[in-house]
Design brief:
- The structure is a single chain.
- The chain has 461 residues and is mainly α.
- The protein contains 20 helices and no strands.
């Protein structure tokens, strides 16, 4: 896997293309070491229309559709939204249930962290060479926070201690048979200790006392690697996990949200997963711009591997930081899957109404649309097509890498989203029109009506 750290510093979030107030990230104002958990958030309420009911349950489909059609959520609601979006809290959970669930998640995480620390006590602290004064200070801030956590545990009431003792017993039983591979875990920690100190150091979240959050990030990554040996740790996970930590501002909540995210995307960190994603991007580009695809596939150019970092990190460095957060949640709402489901339902309703021929219906539902073409692939294609002239001038891999580097922090998110949505709509229209023309009883009016419904689902508001 290529080195994802190109040495370029990350700038603080700039003003987005929407109003400055709506995109001013409130998390950047924090300059402290994050808490172990955020007990007040489970009782929080979302103001998104029609998303949360009176008991605190979430309509997941509406939440995801709101994120896509509105280009993300406000920074003030992002922390709570992400806890549902990425699966830390079940959308079916109520406001009363979530504090109890959080207690269980806290105890389990701390038990997991304690287990690997007891297994490798020499790795509990990061080994410093003494030349990074900021990192030395970060260790000091982190240890002060650890002392505060221990004091808070001693100050707990007897009732709370008894409840937590029961949860700890459950967690101990759950993890008692789990074993570690010492050599593999040591190697993962070695790479983590190399990557963490250079993770987003220019963000305000990691400035001043907040530099201790780098050590929190380290503990989260080691705990994940220790208990997911089939995945372990790979370069780039630090950048993704840092994004969760900055937004959620909680060690436990970050671990579980990141773990849920990795359940779906861990394959992208394997060679076969990367190869598959690049293949899909090439297949999509061939549909959208055959000439550009042919050029990038010529001898001397490793196809689209220069897009690897874009896709792996969710275009983290190609947009201003606040816009990159917006894009990450937009990509994570799985919009193309929602579109496929809703178009399928729209088609089914038309068939029930007698507008569509019901003969030969066994292969009817969107078989012509490749749902492996996720929206991130359309984002990538939109960037490539927008810069096709520059790409057509590239003749080797070095020039392609230089081109990719030149885009960092230069792309306009709203423009890219608009172009990606345009390509998505045209792709769906082209592939569905053949089906509609073949099966609609009255070709023109019914076909146009069906495609009108499709377009209505794709429009960004």
């Amino acid at each position: 896997m290529e080195d994802l750290d190109d040495g370029s510093p990350l700038r603080p979030a700039g003003a987005g293309t929407r109003s400055a107030d709506s995109h001013r990230s409130d998390v950047h104002s924090r300059r402290r070491v994050t808490a172990v958990s955020s007990p007040a958030l489970p009782a929080g309420r979302l103001t998104l229309p029609g998303v949360m009911d009176t008991e605190g349950r979430i309509d997941e489909s509406r939440l995801r559709m709101h994120i896509f059609k509105n280009g993300g959520v406000l920074p003030s609601e992002r922390a709570l939204v992400w806890r549902f979006l990425f699966g830390m809290y079940p959308c079916s959970s109520t406001t009363l249930e979530r504090p109890l669930l959080l207690e269980q998640l806290v105890v389990r995480y701390l038990m997991m962290k304690r287990k690997w620390q007891q297994f490798l006590p020499s790795s509990v602290r990061i080994h410093l060479n003494g030349t990074d004064a900021e990192l030395v200070a970060a260790v000091r801030f982190f240890e002060q926070r650890q002392a505060e956590v221990q004091q808070q545990a001693q100050d707990q009431s007897e009732e709370v201690r008894e409840r937590l003792a029961f949860l700890e017993l459950q967690a101990q039983i759950l993890f008692e048979r789990f074993t570690f591979d010492q050599e593999e875990l040591r190697e993962a920690i070695r790479i983590i200790d190399k990557d963490v100190p250079r993770t987003n150091r220019d963000l305000n979240y990691y400035q001043g006392e907040g530099s201790g959050n780098l050590l929190v990030l380290r503990d989260i990554l080691i705990t994940y690697a220790a208990f997911h040996p089939e995945v372990s740790y790979a370069q780039g996970m630090n950048d993704l996990c840092s994004r969760f930590l900055e937004v959620l501002d909680s060690e436990v909540d970050t671990f579980w949200s990141f773990s849920c995210f990795m359940e779906k995307f861990s394959k992208d960190f394997r060679a076969d997963g990367l190869h598959r994603k690049i293949e899909l991007e090439a297949a999509l580009l061939k549909e959208l711009d055959p000439q550009l695809c042919t050029h990038l596939a010529t001898d001397g150019i490793e196809s689209l591997t220069f897009c690897h970092r874009w896709l792996l990190l969710g275009f983290q460095r190609e947009f201003e930081h606040s816009d990159a957060l917006r894009l990450f949640e937009i990509l994570s709402c799985d919009h193309l899957e929602l579109i496929s489901q809703q178009v399928s339902r729209a088609h089914y309703k038309e068939r029930l109404a007698g507008k569509v021929d019901t003969e030969d219906s066994s292969d009817s539902e969107l078989h012509s649309i490749n749902t492996d073409f996720t929206f991130e692939l359309f984002i990538c294609a939109a960037i490539l097509i927008e810069n096709r002239d520059a790409l057509l001038e590239c003749s080797d891999d070095v020039q392609l890498i230089q081109f990719a580097s030149s885009l960092q922090r230069t792309l306009d998110l709203n423009s890219v989203l608009k172009n990606a949505e345009h390509h998505l709509y045209n792709y769906c229209k082209r592939h569905m029109s053949d089906y509609v023309n073949e099966h609609c009883i009255t070709h023109k009016s019914k076909g146009e009506d069906f495609l009108y419904q499709l377009r209505g689902l794709l429009v960004l508001k």
